[in-house]
Structure formats: C-alpha cells, structure tokens
Amino acid sequence: MSEENTTRIYTVNLSKAWDTPKYRRTDRVINIIKEFTQRHMQTNKVKLDQDLNRHIWSRGKTNPPRKIRLRMIKEDDDTVIVSSFIEEKAPQLEPKESVTEESIVTTESKDSQKE
Length: 115
What we know:
Elements: E1 6-13, H1 25-41, E2 45-48, H2 50-57, E3 67-74, E4 79-84, H3 101-114
Parallel strand pairs: 2-4
Antiparallel strand pairs: 1-3, 3-4
C-alpha cells in the first residue's frame, strides 16, 4: 500500500435527519456521516473526531446542523478518521490610509496661518 494518507474534503447535506423524529435527529446525523464516509472512502472502519462529535451535539439532540464540511483521512490500515474542516483564510493586507499624517500637519499649519 502507499505510505501517504488519502485526504478528501466534502460538504455533507444532513437534511435527511429531519425525516426522523425530533428526539433521534442527532443520532441520525452521526449515521448519515458514517454512511457517507463508507460510500465515498470504500471502507467500513470509520472513526469520528472528538471535536466533530462535540460540534454536532453542541445544539442538542433535536437541532443538529443542516450541513457540515468534513475532512476525511484514510490511513494505511483502511481506517478513516472524519473531522470537521475549517478553511484557513489568507491574511488580509492592511488598507492604505487615504489621509496621511503629512497632509494633516500641512492643513493644521495653514489653519494657524489664517488666524
């Protein structure tokens, strides 16, 4: 087998969980994620990351998220670890100030000369 781990990123729609009774929705979301992972990564060994589990359960048993972005990492022993994916944004450049300190100083000196 290859030495590198296979990593994929998916957005999973979890709206099918709303077809189940309220008191089972979050349980159904966990099953949807596991079924999706098994189908797309071709393995039966699926582990959910602890942070992902906390994110899903954060709003309680009756109100799980409608969709979620996932990172799936397939290891050498065909075990897939599923974690939540958070995009890292590129650092933004600071906008240039339209008014510089020199222009402020020159306008202040002009005002003082008029008086």
